[in-house]
Amino acid sequence: MNWLFGSALKTTMVAPEKALAGRDRYPYSLPTTHTVLGTPLQGPWPDGTEVLYVAMGCFWGAERTFWTIPGVVTTAVGYQGGFTPFPTYEETCTALTGHTEMVLVAYDPSVVSAEDLLRTFWESHNPTQGYRQGNDVGTQYRSAIYTTTPEQELAARTTRDAYQPRLTRSGFGEITTEIRSADDAGTFYYAEGYHQQYLDKNPNGYCGLGGTGVSCPRPTGA
C-alpha cells in the first residue's frame, strides 16, 4: 500500500518527541462486528479468550491469514507500537507516528495454541526485512509480535529460534521481528472501518503478503 503515500517510504523510526501529536479519541466510528466471523471486534469475547498482536507488513492480507484459522474468535486491524494516540491511516503512513500495521488475533487456546498461530506468522511473511515487507517500505511495515501472556512470549522466542537456522540455510538473513509485551508496546488503536476485513469486502484488493517458502518447525521438546 506504500504507493498511496510517498512519505510512507521513510525507514527511520521517529523519535517520540518528533511524533505527531494525535488526539484523545477516535476521529472515526468503528464497526462492531467481524464481517466474516460474526463476532465482536472489540469484545466481549468468551471466557478464556486470549489476544495476540502480530504485524507482517500490509495488515489487509495479514488479517485474512488469521481469520481463516479454526479457534480464532475474531481479528481486527489497527496501529500499535508507536507514540501518536489515536492515529489515522494517513498519519501512520507518514512514518511520523511510530506505529506498525498490527493485527489483533483473539483466539481460544483450547482449540489453537499460541505456538501454532506464531508458526503461521513466521511462514506467512519474510521476517528478515526490517522496515519493509516486499514492495511495501516504511516503519509501518515492520514485523512484530506483541504478547499478552508469558506463554505467548516464550512461544514467540522459541519459534523464532527454531526458525532462524532454517532461514539461514535457505539464504535469508537474521530475523528482525520486534518481540515485546503488548503492555510495553502500548495501546492497540483500531484502524478505520474500511480497513477491517478489507479483503472480505474487496476480494480482489491489494495483498502484498508473501512468505519465504521456508517452513517453521516445532521447537525441540514441543
Automatic annotation (TrEMBL):
EC number assigned by the record: 1.8.4.11
Domain Peptide methionine sulphoxide reductase MsrA per the UniProt entry, residue ranges: 52-207
Keywords, in A-Z order: Oxidoreductase
GO CC annotation, single: cytoplasm
InterPro entries reported in the protein's UniProt record: Met_Sox_Rdtase_MsrA_dom, Met_Sox_Rdtase_MsrA_sf, MsrA_MetSO_reductase
Organism domain of life: Bacteria
Reaction(s) catalysed by this chain's protein: [thioredoxin]-disulfide + L-methionine + H2O = L-methionine (S)-S-oxide + [thioredoxin]-dithiol; L-methionyl-[protein] + [thioredoxin]-disulfide + H2O = L-methionyl-(S)-S-oxide-[protein] + [thioredoxin]-dithiol
Any one of the GO BP annotations: cellular response to oxidative stress
Active site residues according to the UniProt entry: C58
Enzyme class: oxidoreductase
Residues spanning the membrane: none
Molecular function, one GO term: peptide-methionine (S)-S-oxide reductase activity
Function: Has an important function as a repair enzyme for proteins that have been inactivated by oxidation. Catalyzes the reversible oxidation-reduction of methionine sulfoxide in proteins to methionine.
HAMAP family documented for this protein: MsrA
PANTHER family: MITOCHONDRIAL PEPTIDE METHIONINE SULFOXIDE REDUCTASE
Homology family: Belongs to the MsrA Met sulfoxide reductase family.
Protein name: Peptide methionine sulfoxide reductase MsrA
Organism: Cellulomonas humilata
Lineage: Bacteria, Bacillati, Actinomycetota, Actinomycetes, Micrococcales
